[in-house]
Structures
1.
Amino acid sequence: MTTHSKKLEKYNPASESFDIKEFPFYWVARVNALYSREMEKTLKPMGMDIARWRVAAILQFNGPSSISELALHAIGKLPTITKIVYRMRDAGLVEVNASESDGRVAIVTLTEEGHKQVDMVLDMTTKKVFSRAFKGFSEPQIKKTNELLKRLFVNLSAD
Amino acid sequence: MTTHSKKLEKYNPASESFDIKEFPFYWVARVNALYSREMEKTLKPMGMDIARWRVAAILQFNGPSSISELALHAIGKLPTITKIVYRMRDAGLVEVNASESDGRVAIVTLTEEGHKQVDMVLDMTTKKVFSRAFKGFSEPQIKKTNELLKRLFVNLSAD
DNA sequence: AAAATTTAGTTGACAATTCAACCTTTAGCG
DNA sequence: CGCTAAAGGTTGAATTGTCAACTAAATTTT
């Protein structure tokens, strides 16, 4: 019993009539790559990269977080985030402390310097990347984009 | 002169009222990561990874391509793609030949074995990942998702 | 409450990616 | 034509990411 109509076949990679240009994940990957590359340009001159940036941004917006939380939101395997965090600590961007309530948990906090860097990046990228990407988008369209992406995310999150 | 309404501020990372959960690129990155992770599960057992998969898929759908074209569509820096391609050649998935018309260009072609692997992956991932991700999506919604992503891509592509 | 399991994080060995520097071949230009 | 620049690709060194194995703290079982 299939819940999909014949028309959906075009979007299905295993179908004969499949067209990669109509496959949303192809575009998700390319948009992500393009956005990352654009960010890189801004980050490089200040000795940052996307990995560090993601962690810093999450810390700025979500406040102090454990390594696991960072792995979840900033996207990455635990060992990867661990190493990024300690590189960032060596660079003076974050502090790492054991949680009071749970001895296993390492809480990462942005330093003053870290906050300054985030503000600087936001300042430089906002006009350069954000407004360019959404040129011609109305508010409902941005909202719609977000909604659809969130739904994809939720669907993929479910085991 | 600004073309954006006050309401758009919420989506703008540099704005005071910015909410990272309403920032589309945050979701683009997370969706991409989740999709990749899901694909990885299928690819790992057959000795593939996402990088190889992207290259193979592009070759399957676009036909023989130069290294630069692969770098563009499969997303990656030139040296990265070069190395992936030669790893794939050593694994018997592709052939590499100099272009007839331009001595600088290396044309990459999927072998029989390569095609077989792509078909196999498509077969295994289609039901597992694609249909799960788009559960509850109507055809117009998938179409809309694609449109919005393409627009973002085009906007970001423009210098 | 002791033993077993799970959760959170770290580390070292290995694999993959990236940056720079380089080599060819092609395209432009006076 | 001959010179210079640009395009396409490759390679080695350095960086970064990943897997597997491990430690320690907390939770669950019994």
2.
Amino acid sequence: MNKQTMNRILDTLKDMFPDAHCELNHSNPFELTIAVLLSAQCTDKKVNQVTEELFKKYKTPSDYLSVPLKELEQDIKQIGLYRSKAKNIQKLCRTLLEEYGGEVPQSHDALTKLAGVGRKTANVVMSNAFGVPAIAVDTHVERVSKRLGICRWKDTVLEVENNLMKKVPREEWTETHHRLIFFGRYHCKAQNPSCEICPLSDLCREGKKRMKSAK
DNA sequence: CTCCCGATAT
DNA sequence: ATATCAGGAG
């Protein structure tokens, strides 16, 4: 992909979603970390429904450790993958208390060592909570980047991330990341993407195919 | 690679 | 009925 095409994509995304932002409700780094951990294979909307009550009941790492595992499981059950997530939350909270004075560490390396926190979650926390430029590659960013030809179809999520970091100016990483999410979530959807009204459909094999069959 | 898993959209 | 949802661990 040449530079002009990439710039066209970035300009179009900015035009379509000028105020794209993190849609996981949170009021501090700790809540954000919990919310992102919960968001794996689940919609943000559902996570927000659950965290509205969850964050009233659990304010600190100690709070999550003050109840039996089974109780926490029930409190997040609607999210799915709830057994492993509940276990990870308690293990993560134990680590925060034992290693970091109950605070969320402000380094990518330390974050990924926490239970249930991988590269994608660490990137989201670093960028949204601590203002460090990052591009977290989730299901939307991966799908959109591949459809638009920003990277190759066979690329791993790490390769997708490296591609985006190479092609997007560092100071625009975080905003671009959010725009790719919005683009994937509301426009270039996994099912029934809006190819007919997509200003970038000429860049996308899938889009071209759908345009033809629509005629 | 598989497993984890309920809610929602299609 | 099936696909998908801000993935991570083993």
3.
Amino acid sequence: MAARKTDGSADVAAGQPAGGRRRRDAAATREALLQAARDRFIRLGYDRTTLRDVAADVGVNLALIKRYFDSKEGLFKAALAGTPRFLGGAGEFPQDRAALAEALSRQLAAGAWPEFGEHPVLLLLRVSGDERVDSLRRQALRDFSRRVLEASGAAGDDDERLLRAELLVALGVGIAVVRSAVGLRPLADATADELIGPLRDVVDGLLAPPRPGDAV
Amino acid sequence: MAARKTDGSADVAAGQPAGGRRRRDAAATREALLQAARDRFIRLGYDRTTLRDVAADVGVNLALIKRYFDSKEGLFKAALAGTPRFLGGAGEFPQDRAALAEALSRQLAAGAWPEFGEHPVLLLLRVSGDERVDSLRRQALRDFSRRVLEASGAAGDDDERLLRAELLVALGVGIAVVRSAVGLRPLADATADELIGPLRDVVDGLLAPPRPGDAV
Amino acid sequence: MAARKTDGSADVAAGQPAGGRRRRDAAATREALLQAARDRFIRLGYDRTTLRDVAADVGVNLALIKRYFDSKEGLFKAALAGTPRFLGGAGEFPQDRAALAEALSRQLAAGAWPEFGEHPVLLLLRVSGDERVDSLRRQALRDFSRRVLEASGAAGDDDERLLRAELLVALGVGIAVVRSAVGLRPLADATADELIGPLRDVVDGLLAPPRPGDAV
Amino acid sequence: MAARKTDGSADVAAGQPAGGRRRRDAAATREALLQAARDRFIRLGYDRTTLRDVAADVGVNLALIKRYFDSKEGLFKAALAGTPRFLGGAGEFPQDRAALAEALSRQLAAGAWPEFGEHPVLLLLRVSGDERVDSLRRQALRDFSRRVLEASGAAGDDDERLLRAELLVALGVGIAVVRSAVGLRPLADATADELIGPLRDVVDGLLAPPRPGDAV
DNA sequence: AATGAATGAGCTTTCATTCAT
DNA sequence: GATGAATGAAAGCTCATTCAT
């Protein structure tokens, strides 16, 4: 690297007895490291995130990262593992098209993930170069597509329907990227309420059963 | 960075007088460097692209990069500048909604950009950390949104219409990312013909004038 | 150090009350640590032996090493101190040339030191960088030379005789090194029976009283 | 490591234009690095030799070592490769027993290898942990044994004769170790003249054809 | 007595960059 | 215009050690 910095290293150490150093609370330290790591990975990507900075954010020694996560790769995976799925857990997934648009707009609106700073899906996109991580990423997005497919309630050619579900995933990813990494305005500032209308149209357009008379 | 390589360094230097050394063709050398740089930036991102590898691809000395582009940042900007806009040049932009979906599907299908290896929009997303580059990126995407807006032919609230145009941009970005960086299948393998149907529905859903009776 | 491991960390803790944790048997723990340390020092040398691995071999906490031996240096010295002399204790030293060759061949043959894995003289050669350790080492070898001298029963110039005794020491050291650290074959595999003949010739050649008519 | 230093880092830079920095002489720089590396590897062993110190000895930047030797392992191998064989080149090897003792005593006497500081065979013994290096080492010593065998002119059982040749190798190694690494006196200070007598007796004892009447 | 959290220092390696030729 | 030698700065990782509990 040898390049410039873009961050603003600040001691976080949330919830710690201020004044003194963080002492003897492995779980808390581990969690704080994860938090700081996620923040940097999402904001700066894998390469520009340095373990030294992560440790400094939390105010602990660099070697603790090795202790808890073994390596940078391990830290990244742990950050990834702790990341909420694209759209909630199993039970919470919207069960029909109508709910899907609303859920999406809420998920993608700014500030929806206060504990991550930015949308967690961005973490998935920060290349690590490790095939197993790439695989994790693919799996997560594939899962999401499958769920969208189930929620779509649409009939018809299976491949085409899956493609349409994946296009919805792509839209979600694109929105997250364009909002956070690019800062395209007004999209970057749109609230959930402003997003829901257009998203409903997209979801309907993509997932509505083909109208009678349409030729594919 | 840490270690692994993902490339396959191969001398390119196409169109050079074989046998002898590349001699004294500044313009050609410069162009070859740009080409090699784009390829790596798109495939590996900014950080994992090393100037040494770029120079080695072309078969010239590393210091030439400094001569022509001054720095890695400069090389990246030059690579970015030479990138075709998201959707063709001024005159070629589709003038109505109907054409837009088709143009998009063609643009986003694999192999559409043989000289880049992958979709050039990915180059826009490779963080450089430099604010001027970020600005370039935003500008390019903003331009595209404006043009989509013009092509949409829609009436109504200006802000909402711009938001919808930007959502289309986001979709394009998302598709490029999901195809190339993530490899989500079947989307990654879809042809222009397979993409056009769903994309038409999205474009219609997003840009069609609100049907009578709709409440926003 | 850099990276690779060459061991095969296995819990030893022989003779411990199985089932429960090693509890409160300071002497046993201390001895087990020494044993594990010797094994690693001999096999891997000083630098490549890590206290963590030694502690793990025994199954106790790393900090115990500090408690019992104060430091890595201390552990090494303790390991050295517990090492049997090159050739047995005082009373057992062979009293004449004839016995010397036989004792040597037995000492140097493989498997002669089951509790060390390799010949303990190797421990003497593992640099510690500490002058007091170097001194210990010199003293041990000097003692051995003196005893060889006494056993040689030879008359003549004192200095020359000492030199010859030290050459026998050097041979012993060389054999241990070449067998264990280098693995030179067939020497590395030779049994005591195979060694004794040649060694008898060396001992005779070196220590036999100068034949009449010889000029030194 | 994290341990003490035992050296005395001093700028060498022999043959360089004093006053200014070493400039633009790749071959000389490379050689100076090799020289410094050999010195440290022999004196301190592989682990305790740091690239920083080697570079500092020569007065150049650490990264040059990567440039010329790629890695620490590479530097070690290069140092090893440039090391003279145990006993001279092909033609120079003593052709009979009589010459062998004399050659050995000359080789093993102090100061015989001014460009190495210590006897180069010690370099062979400095573990690197790399199997290919271990193999190099074994091969070098095996070569030497074979040559001793050829020079011995002895008849008899082949295996026994090889064993005896290897014992002579072991003696050579042992003498080098005991002189340099251990500093056993008077052996460490003995001159070639003082060594030759005893060595002649050893060589005769080991390699002389079995006297008639001897049972093996 | 024993544990495990936390630290500090140092090592190899990697890169962008600069300087002479 | 072009080359290759040389530099500086940092990154990931490892280890002995110390400090609370």
4.
Amino acid sequence: MDTPTASLLARSSTRSPAWDPRWDALFGLPRLSEAERQALALLLRSRAVAVGESVFRRGQASLQLVAVLEGAVGLGVATQGQAFHLERNIHGPAWLDISSAWAGGMFVQDAQALQTATVLELPLDGLRQLLGRCPDLCERMMCALAHAVQSLTGTTHDLMAKDAQKRLATWLLSRRSEASGGDVALKERKRELAAQLAITPETLSRLLRSLMSAGLIEVKGYSIKLLNLGALQSLAHD
Amino acid sequence: MDTPTASLLARSSTRSPAWDPRWDALFGLPRLSEAERQALALLLRSRAVAVGESVFRRGQASLQLVAVLEGAVGLGVATQGQAFHLERNIHGPAWLDISSAWAGGMFVQDAQALQTATVLELPLDGLRQLLGRCPDLCERMMCALAHAVQSLTGTTHDLMAKDAQKRLATWLLSRRSEASGGDVALKERKRELAAQLAITPETLSRLLRSLMSAGLIEVKGYSIKLLNLGALQSLAHD
DNA sequence: CGAACCCTTGATACGCTTCAACAAGAGTGG
DNA sequence: CCACTCTTGTTGAAGCGTATCAAGGGTTCG
């Protein structure tokens, strides 16, 4: 069911290709030129991934950039046995791994589909040639990598300096600003959110309850209403 | 006292410029071509920074890439007051910030000299034009950014999945492999190492003692001898 | 010599995890 | 329809890991 839109993005349809806003999530604004879009479309391959299936494994050779077009993929490491320690949720459309192919050519994490997902792969050797011809594209990739660095820097800072409550407040506020509205709809299981915050599901449950009884939020299943933004911000702010 | 070598790197001396190995730390191997080196030398500016002095501040406009040539600079955030929460030590030669200029143009961290340092700045507008002409340099920058992503990914993983003892063991082993030898010489104060491991100096002291009484290491002031690599590796390994 | 650091050591407190039990849906098959 | 199981989230009690606070020792330096 995802394939029609996926293939729309993958191959440039012959006439009047409706602009797919998912390009923007990957390459930023302003929009790619039509020439750039078509050149990329010639390179990339997309594939569907079923729930629980592996997208790539740690140690595997990484010869392409990987993005999630639709669905959700979890990044983490598979510890001994089959347990999978989830560390990060990537919700399409977004880059899943732009760094491994450039640096060393080996994945350092495992990726596993949390929902049925459409994954896009962009071979590095083709991309490299394309970048040589398109300085504009080159700069976009640079920016994408830089944003990844900034995002990870923020994550590291939060882990080092904030306790679980602060991290939760930070996360709630960052999700609110994405879809501007009074409340946040969870797109993931609570245990996945907990993993992303580096806490246990039990602690997350307790934190949500404590924030709720403090009157800062209102939790109803997978929908959280933020009642007191100011208080949340002062909580989140170091 | 650092200035002669710094200026050697900054301006291309007219004849037989001895290759400065510090370029390799920034741009990787294989070596830059002479043309690339000279083009970069025309762009960059270097400056000396005294101990405790700020290199850049959070929120400031970031229009250039920043590297540490010599000395050490700490990355972190200045909390209210004058306290400085250290998060990362950058020991020259190494990049200090390659992402801020590309992404948003604003520093997200503070940087403060921990030792007398020589700092190198590479304005982005000039670099951008240079990258348009040199695909090779462009790829090097891409790799540098990608390595930053990988390094931060590793840090994040360690913070999420390992306890303090595991992080310390990981750090000891990673430092050993840099300068191949039986023992590790600390280039920083122990409190700075503690900050980098996201623990307090007290906990670091206790951990070192416990590893020492377990016979895994031998601590003598600022020099740590690794006595049992296998045991350390099994500790560090998730 | 005292002052300022840095590191260490001990006692205590707190945050979070772990383990175990339980409740509430969702899917399944009789 | 019911009983059954599987999954997910919740709640409580106990325990571990690390922070915090306070005190003391070793250097270096004026």
